[in-house]
Every structure is written in structure tokens, then in C-alpha cells.
UniProtKB/TrEMBL annotation:
Keyword terms of this UniProt record: Signal
Residue span(s) of domain Glucose/Sorbosone dehydrogenase: 39-358
InterPro entries from the UniProt entry: 6-blade_b-propeller_TolB-like, Glc/Sorbosone_DH, Quinoprot_gluc/sorb_DH_b-prop
UniProt key word Signal: yes
Full protein name: PQQ-dependent sugar dehydrogenase
Amino acid sequence: MKSRFYILTLILSMSIFACAQDKNPTNTNHSHQVVVPDLKNPWGFVFLPDNSMLITEKSGALIHFKNGKKTRITGLPEIHVYGQGGLMDITLHPDYKSNGWIYFSYASAEGDDKGGNTAIARAKLNNNSLINFQVLYKASPNTKAGQHFGSRIVIDTDNFLFFSIGDRGDRDVNPQDLTKDGGKIYRLHDDGSIPKDNPFLTSPNAKKAIYSYGHRNPQGMTIHPETKAIWIHEHGPKGGDEINIVQAGNNYGWPKVTYGVNYSGTEITNKTTLPGMTAPIHYWDPSIAPSGMAFITSTVYPDWKGNLLVGSLKFQYLDLCYLKGEKVIKEERLLDGLGRVRSVVQGPDGYIYVGIENLGIVKILPKKE
């Protein structure tokens, strides 16, 4: 009886070990410097033209960091902080120097008293206050679910605003239904108007801002520096985190196809591909819980140039994904064990800056030969 108990315990421990480990090797050819200390959850950040930073804290604070000093910016709307929601991403208009527009994603309770949903807005910075605040999109209906808000935002060189909203925990309804918000990538003009060539503009009752659908919870979005395609990553369930290249009108399959399973271990579907659904270019199993995403175009890191960075919340490192075309051929850990990586940006100086929960924003320094 004891031997059976021992064997069962050994098998169980081996199974837990296998599920809890990530196999990527650690790249030690770098160090780091904390440049903005004492941040709890730096969900997003951008550099202003004077090289100061605007940083969002999920708790609802917008921080201006300049010359070593943090100043809290006023003028935000009420942020509905609950679950995974709060003040999330931030980006600048490509022509920010001329027009001054700053774009935000956040959880908002506007509309009814049944919780909240993801909102996209823009404003301008005047001294230490936001002015001309405009809500460009508000997902509906509100829900008391605390998960899967998305919500990354990018603006391309044609001034199209792309953003993500997760399935809001209602996987069996939202991602595959074009009449409902959630589980989608959206596209607007930079002023919030609907582009006339959006793929579902003439579909009956469809949300006109939808660009692609069948997504679970995209928390990474970036523009490929050469092809200009929109790359995203999204959280899978247990296993099956994905990297996808967004194309107009495409269905990315969730939850009809997935490489993951329920958190209990039970099957969601036995399909990883179906006709008419776009497969990911890469997936992780076990899940790394990805957040934040950036391409390296800088010559500061010669061996890394042209590759992709993805933060890992679960395993607490920055994943360096070596690319060959649209294929991830190798992965390495950077900043291993510093904390949950929430956001990553290549700064105007060419250095990589990374937002790490309960630490701050760190700058990656390449080791000199």
C-alpha cells in the first residue's frame, strides 16, 4: 500500500513539475537599470518628445515621469477598477508633435450600473491636466465579469486606430458573434469614425468597428516595422497562448479551435484548426500568460535586431522570440525572475524599456564584449 502511495505521489509531483516549468534558456548577455522605481502595475507607457514618460497604473493613476520626478496627471474620467480592469494602455498619435493627441484604453462603467466594459478615448496634455477628453468607443453591454478586457492600442501610419477587447469571460457568445462586443480586434479612424472599408460594415446588425474576431484576450499588439501588419498575442485558457497576424475580416477561431484546455483540465474542443479559421503563427504550451509586445529595430542590441519581445506574467521574464519570416524559431528569457512583465517599449534612444509589476520600469543594458 505504501509503495502504491509513493508511486502515485511521484507521478503527481512529476506532472505538476512538468506543467509548471518553461523550457526556454536564459540569455545572460544583458543587465538592467531601474529607471522608474516603485510602480505597482505599469500597464502601459509612452515617451513624449522631450523623452519624459507617461505611465498608466492599472489602479487608475496616470503618471508623468520627468527628471526623476513623478507627477500625477489629472483629468481622467472615472476608471472602473475591478478584476483585470482599470486604466490600461496608452499610445501617442503618430503626428503627436503637431496635434497633441494621446490615446487610452480603460474600464468604464458608463452606460448602466451592471459593471463595466472597455472604453477607448483620447485627450491632450496641458501642463499636468488632460483636456479635450473624448470617448471614441465604449463596448457594451456592461458586465460584472472581471476578466478579459483586452486592451492594447496602436495607430498605424495611415492613422487607423486598432484596439483589442477580450471576450469578457463569455466565450460561448461574444467572440463568434459579430453583433456583440468582445473577443475582437477593432479599427477606427484616429477621430473615432468608422472606416468605410471595414470588413463588416454592411453585415446586418454587426458592430461596424470590428476588424477581426474569434479572439480570447489580446494583451499584446504591435506593428511590424517592415510589413506594417498588425501582430497580436492573446491569452489562451490552460495552454494555447497565441501569436496572430491580424487580417481584415478573419476569424481566429476562439473557442471553436484552441491548443488549450479548461483550467480544470477538461477539453474545450478537440479541434486546433477548422476551415475558414486562421491558425496562429505560434503558440505556447504551457501558457506563459503574455502581456506587452514590441519588435526590436534598434542597433543597440545587434544580435536581437529584427526579433520580437513578449512579456510573461506567469513565468516572470521577457521572452525574446527569434523570427524567420513569420515563424518563431527560438526563444530565450531576458530579465529572468524580476517580476511579472506587463509592458515593453523600444524607446527613442533605441533601448528596450520594460514595465514590471511591483518594481517599475527597467532599461535593458547590453553587456559589452
